[in-house]
Design goal:
The longest helix is centred in the first third of the chain and has 28 residues. By secondary structure, the chain is mainly α. The chain contains 7 helices and no strands. It has one domain: Hemerythrin-like (Four Helix Bundle (Hemerythrin (Met), subunit A), Up-down Bundle).
């Protein structure tokens, strides 16, 4: 049984946020599966870093949406996000330093409780603001996973060329 399983009851009614939540649940399940199957430490470490990175991306997107919708709960919502950002980042860093020192049973329970509680009690509260500002939310578009602004195009293409 997965740590977290997506269901329509967890939908906040905002497609991009629901999609992010589904991907985050999948990443959490991947970490759990890798731990249960005793995958290589490099695999588990990589999955934890991916989870931390996508958590940061999702929270930035969610906070940006709340900002353009003038959601008055943004500051409080960001505090919730900051606590989980720190927790997931700490687990990822701690695992890199001492793989045997991470209590994955605690991590699994914390992820389950935090995400379900946060989605059902906190994220769902943004829905009326998002629906009332659908045009502003649509104007945001997709946020890039990596900010490439300020990097010259020539530098990008040089860095991305394959070395044979």
């Amino acid at each position: 049984m997965p740590v977290l399983e997506w269901s329509p009851s967890l939908s906040v009614g905002v497609a991009s946020i629901d999609s992010d939540h589904q991907l985050l649940f999948s990443l959490i399940a991947d970490v759990d599966r890798a731990v249960q199957e005793k995958e290589e430490t490099s695999v588990i470490g990589s999955l934890l870093r991916s989870l931390a990175d996508y958590t940061d991306y999702h929270f930035a997107r969610e906070e940006r949406i709340m900002e353009v919708c003038a959601d008055p709960a943004l500051a409080n919502h960001k505090e919730y996000h900051d606590r989980l950002r720190a927790e997931v980042g700490d687990v990822s860093h701690h695992y890199a330093d001492d793989p045997d020192g991470v209590d994955f049973d605690h991590f699994r329970g914390m992820m389950r409780e935090w995400w379900v509680d946060h989605i059902l009690r906190v994220d769902v509260m943004m829905k009326p603001f998002v629906l009332a500002n659908a045009d502003k939310v649509a104007a945001i578009g997709e946020m890039p996973l990596v900010d490439l602004s300020g990097i010259e195009e020539d530098a990008l293409s040089e860095d991305l060329e394959w070395q044979i």
